[in-house]
Specification:
Helix content is 33%, strand content 18%. It has 298 residues and is α/β, with parallel strands linked by helices.
Length: 298
């Protein structure tokens, strides 16, 4: 059992809340485990796109380039990364729309975070979004809420002038102005926008709360994934977590410390459904790593 698995098991055992199920194991998310660097994977087009009126911008993702970087593929070819995320997303979808959803506030809003930077949260958030977009009856919105160190746009090479912070700063900007349609039919993206020194206050604002409520209720089949900052040392993430029904904490095999995991989890709301996604694991170490899930019943 790895150090991360021991920490997860310890956290579940010490929790004063009931476990939803036994911790399940799948293989690690990626062989190389590194978040990809920016490349020529997307291009933005903002004029004369045959999209619904509410979506004014269109992003052409370079899907073959993403596949080369070990992201989830939308092709029919069976790939290990696809199989791994298929297992992970199933729990999240079941929590969002299944029996547990009635016990969670905003069960379809999912926060993806980590304890420290560099553990692969953005890589994981993008892969979760791509995997959920493969569902035939679900849509997914990927929101880059790591407004101090935005990585979604960098990873996907998206160049677009306005995003989440711009919307929160101006009553003149509408949701439709920042929501980007993509060439992945059921995937939409909102970038972080311009960095702002009042990022915590913006994410804790009434306008952000109203936006989260709209995301949670406007579309009955939509999952919203927030790529959030790491939990430790950043106030914004705890604020974002209070608006979400689920949290995925990305851990790095053989790097994340037990004390950091325990400290990070204490910053999450007691009533949020919390999952652990172990990233950057070495396959030759066996199959004792993957995704564990428990629900804190408050």
């Amino acid at each position: 059992m790895s150090i991360i698995e021991k920490a997860i098991n310890k956290q579940v055992q010490q929790s004063d809340t009931k476990p939803l199920s036994t911790i399940e194991r799948t293989q690690a998310v990626t062989e190389a485990g590194n978040e990809p660097t920016a490349g020529p994977v997307a291009a933005a087009v903002t004029a004369n796109i045959a999209e619904p009126a509410e979506h004014k911008a269109f992003i052409e993702l370079n899907l073959p380039e993403l596949e080369k970087k070990n992201f989830v593929s939308l092709s029919s070819e069976r790939r290990l990364i696809n199989e791994e995320y298929r297992v992970i997303k199933r729990k999240l979808i079941n929590n969002a729309f299944g029996a547990l959803s009635s016990t969670l506030k905003h069960s379809n809003l999912i926060l993806v975070t980590s304890s420290r930077p560099g553990e692969g949260k953005t890589f994981s958030a993008i892969n979760l979004a791509l995997s959920i977009a493969l569902e035939q009856d679900k849509t997914v919105l990927l929101v880059d809420s790591d407004v101090l160190r935005p990585s979604v746009s960098k990873s996907l090479n998206i160049k677009y002038d306005i995003g989440l912070t711009d919307y929160l700063l101006s009553d003149e900007i509408k949701v439709s102005d920042i929501m980007l349609s993509t060439n992945v039919e059921r995937l939409k993206i909102i970038t972080a926008g311009r960095p702002h020194h009042l990022s915590t206050e913006l994410l804790a604002s009434e306008r952000m709360l109203m936006l989260a409520n709209e995301f949670a209720s406007r579309y009955h089949d939509r999952i919203v994934i927030f790529d959030a900052p790491p939990l430790l040392g950043v106030n914004e993430t705890a604020v974002m977590a209070s608006m979400c029904g689920q949290a995925v904490v990305v851990l790095e095999e053989n790097r994340t410390k037990i004390a950091e995991i325990e400290q990070a989890v204490t910053l999450l709301p007691k009533d949020i459904a919390t999952g652990f996604l172990i990233n950057k694991a070495h396959r030759n170490q066996g199959k004792g790593y993957g995704y564990g899930y428990y629900y804190g019943a408050g």
